[in-house]
Amino acid sequence: MSRILSQRDLEFLLYEWLDVETLTELPRFTEHSRETFDAFLEVSARIAEREFANHNRENDLHEPTFDGERVTVIPEVKAALKAFSDTGLLAGALDEEVGGLQLPQVVLRACFAWFQAANIATSAYPMLTMGNVNLLLAYAKEEHVKAFARPMIEGRFTGTMCLSEPQAGSSLADVTTRAVPVGDGVYRLTGSKMWISAGDHELSETIVHLVLARVAGAPAGVKGLSLFIVPKHLLGPDGAPAERNDVVLAGLNHKMGFRGTTNAVLSFGDGTHTPLGAPGAVGYLVGEDGSGLTYMFHMMNEARIGVGAGAVALGYTGYLHALAYARERQQGRPAADRNPSAPPVPIIRHPDVRRMLLASKTYVEGGMALILYAAKLLDDDSPDAPQLLDVLTPIVKAWPSQWCLKADDYAIQVHGGYGYTREYPVEQFYRDNRLNPIHEGTDGIQALDLLGRKVTMNGGAGLALLLRTIGTTIAGAPPELSGMAGALEAACARLAEVTRRLWASGDPDKALANATAYLDAAGHIVIAWMWLEQAIAAAGKEGAFYDGKRLAARYFFDHELPRIGPWLDLLASGDTLLADLDDEVL
Description:
alpha+beta; 12 strands; about 55% helix
């Protein structure tokens, strides 16, 4: 049995619950079948095992280095990226006319989960590249699609997103990178970007940076931002990389985890290079001036789902390692049998170990269900799907980042002292996963997005749609699941009532004072919904696998869903301690 992911669980989620075979009835997917889906899932699992998992530890122990001129990455990374590119999954969900396979997003997400679980650091390179390509296909000129997107689809170029700056962090309104037009949609950029994942390396022919910058004379704030393609190399007449652009690596950030992905401080236009004989990094405007953040959200939202998926994948592999260890490790005796001459039992027999394993199972299998459900919304041609995905996206990013990280925390605890050593991989899973509550918008930012925007948009239509959708599941629950259905119905009603109360005054400072508690509560309600859905799909089916699903659903409703009570009580109280306190007392 694989300790990377559970093939059986993916089969259940895809085919017995989400029924992805029905997608082949849609015109876009008629060339596919369960056989093609299974083939891509099988090759993903195989390559993840052979080409990604094989250097996960080396990636961590021998992180990228920078000698002042060149970045060095262990050679296994380039070999893995070549193997990934050869699968065709870089273009998995793209249109056939651009070389894509037109796979459903839900199948592609399940495939990519294997790579994220096997080696999150190496998988970051193709994840960012795919997001870069999707943005360019949506908004760039055809000449730029041909020059930059198609080589990324072919695996020759890689891509990044460049938003944050040293002085601004997540506050994109404070971006100061400047762009000066020089004619024909060409600009010269100057400034600095920080925390740029995959920002510099020699794993591809060149790197295509998507850079947020402010055109000279543009208004302050996010409305003054535009988006630019800034390649590491300018392209020659044949489309191949040629002269170096004025994009320079100023240094690498040294991270707690996720070490195998280069994380760069980039300097644009510092004069190290003079492309085309003039200072400043050459950039090409994407779409319209002043719409940069709108375009960048196309990639950011995709990345947020990818971050949530990565958190699930890391939590999942941590859980599987802990489960295997608990079955093998013998220590102690049952409370009812204190005979010191009796042989020790596997630690999985101890209730507290079972608690941690069962909690972890609910986090990672519930999180995987949420990730795949969100991905299927991208395949859904119904008019409600985009709005439902909008509401769910902050939860998709943030809930797994918190609770699947907890699964890795429990994995260390199950291993005991061994878990806190470098001889076992679970400590690395935790360190790698600890990044996910931070990047692509911290969990606090996701909370503000959920409560401040998503549940209130269009007069509350987003939240109403989510609650109606959950209500459909509740209405379809069989009698034996009526207790769970009733508990979820009550939780949804309480969430709706608390939301109305929070916004009754129209004061955003008061409404958002405890936004994180709102995200916690809404996230647990959504995962309870995912578990009710899975329990319905498992109803009437026999075998240990289905018994495990029923047990996990019961645990989540009995032990986890009640957590929302104090969170919602705090919100309903109107407490504004965090908004009002004097920071001098901290």
